[in-house]
Design goal:
flat, 467 residues, 63% helix, three-stranded antiparallel β-sheet, single chain, mainly alpha
Length: 467
């Protein structure tokens, strides 16, 4: 036996006696500890990303609150921890918690904080997906999302417990439920998209659901989004029109330049709430700004209002009779979304009508959930009741959007029957597939699924059509 062989055998025996493999320092099974270490490190990183997603938003709120504390007090009466307590309360409110204080309760969710939290968890999901290996399954995505969720819930628990004081402070259960919803809306879609599992999950959902259901979900979200966009435009126009009155309301507070900055940032955080209120006004139920008040296209009943800028946009007199026409807006929204999405429609009259009606229900649910978060209490006395009538908002929005959506579906069905054509695309939510053209006449081609409109005939087809 050669000296080289003896040396190799001695190295192998030494590695076996020390529990390490030759050369790479790994365990008895090559690569096993390395894989376990990689998994543990990735798990810890995912939990840390969940914690950081909460801390980023909390830190931004803390900066704003410290600015307000320094501008209003500069340490003369209150300590900085009072400002940090306000930041923690505001963050917990953004997760859906309710705040109970000796001077009153606050349960309206500042949707601006919620939106920032969703964006932060979405960034966390992208970071976790970027560290994923090439081969990722659905179970891996679920585990990674659960780890991010766990980190975010731990951060929520710590913040709420530290912010609570005896019987005051934000409620823990609502904060945990809201934090879970934030992660589901932000991190999980980002994980699915970043790991390339989004298409597979959507394809699996399509096999489990009727063919027209995914289209109904997309159209419903589009209806709610379009209605909220119109409400944002309306709110912006009203704020611009009454900018002078709003400036007077702010100047009455005699704010310093730093106070003005803090007030502007706080207004941006509650701006999405005002957009939801404007959407409720467009639909018809209106908005309540204090007990015994109502602002709608048909009724205006107001009492004393707080001196904040947005109250300048509220009408002070009864609305003109023609203003009731704005309630046709959701009907037009439902009609427009269905007509614009005409290329992805199901075969059959019943399926098309069912898809349009289901889309209206989905939009109504979205608006009702947003209305629920934007309603509640913001203080004692008359401010104990603000927001929108949620049930009425749901029923009216479903009815109005449904009328428009079903009408749009009916118009498309009539057009197809008069033109002898089937719905473009051939299927509700499936991708375009190659079809056999049996006969072609100009811009129309006959396939096994019926007549279809084509963009333009080819040169050969044009020659044959001309014969």
């Amino acid at each position: 036996m050669s000296d080289t062989a003896l040396d190799e055998r001695s190295d192998a025996d030494a590695g076996a006696s020390t529990g390490t493999g030759p050369g790479d320092g790994s365990g008895a099974v090559p690569g096993e500890e390395t894989g376990a270490w990689h998994t543990a490190r990735a798990s810890v990183a995912a939990v840390a990303d969940g914690v950081l997603a909460a801390l980023w938003v909390l830190a931004a709120l803390a900066v704003v609150c410290l600015m307000g504390w320094f501008s209003a007090d500069a340490g003369l009466r209150w300590e900085p921890r009072a400002a940090l307590r306000v930041a923690a309360d505001a963050w917990a409110l953004g997760q859906g918690a309710s705040l109970v204080q000796p001077w009153g309760a606050v349960s309206v969710v500042p949707l601006g904080v919620t939106l920032l939290s969703v964006l932060a968890t979405r960034r966390a999901g992208r970071r976790v997906a970027a560290r994923a290996q090439d081969e990722v399954g659905d179970l891996d995505v679920a585990i990674a999302g659960a780890l991010v969720l766990g980190g975010y819930l731990v951060a929520t628990l710590v913040v709420v417990v530290l912010a609570g004081a005896e019987e005051t402070g934000p409620s823990l259960l609502r904060a945990l439920l809201g934090a879970g919803a934030v992660v589901v809306l932000g991190a999980f879609p980002a994980l699915a998209a970043g790991t390339g599992r989004q298409d597979a999950l959507l394809a699996r959902a399509r096999t489990l659901l009727p063919a027209w259901v995914p289209g109904a979900l997309r159209r419903g979200v589009a209806m709610a989004g379009l209605l909220l966009a119109l409400a944002a435009l309306l709110l912006g126009a009203l704020l611009l029109r009454h900018a002078g009155a709003g400036a007077e309301a702010v100047s009455a507070l005699q704010p310093s330049p730093l106070d003005t900055v803090v007030l502007g940032i706080a207004s941006l955080l509650v701006l999405p709430v005002l957009v939801v209120w404007a959407a409720a006004w467009l639909v018809g139920p209106g908005v309540v700004v204090g007990s015994g008040t109502l602002v709608s296209p048909t009724v205006v009943t107001l009492g004393p209002l707080p001196a904040v800028p947005f109250t300048a946009a509220l009408p002070t007199t009864g609305p003109p009779s023609w203003l009731v026409a704005v309630q046709v807006t959701p009907v037009l929204v439902g009609l427009g979304v269905v007509l614009l999405a005409r290329r992805e429609r199901p075969h059959g009259t019943a399926a098309a009508i069912a898809q349009a009606a289901a889309a209206a229900v989905v939009a109504g649910v979205v608006l009702a959930v947003l209305g629920l978060t934007a309603s509640g209490s913001v203080g004692p006395g008359r401010l104990g009741e603000v927001g929108v009538p949620v049930l009425e908002l749901f029923l009216v929005s479903v009815s109005a959007l449904g009328v428009g959506a079903v009408s749009g579906a009916g118009l498309l069905i009539l057009r197809d029957r008069r033109g002898g054509a089937s719905p473009a695309g051939g299927s509700t939510d499936e991708e375009e597939t190659v079809e056999i053209v049996v006969e072609r006449h100009g811009a129309r081609a006959f396939t096994p699924s019926g007549w279809r409109r084509v963009v333009a005939p080819t040169a050969g087809d044009a020659g044959r059509d001309g014969r």
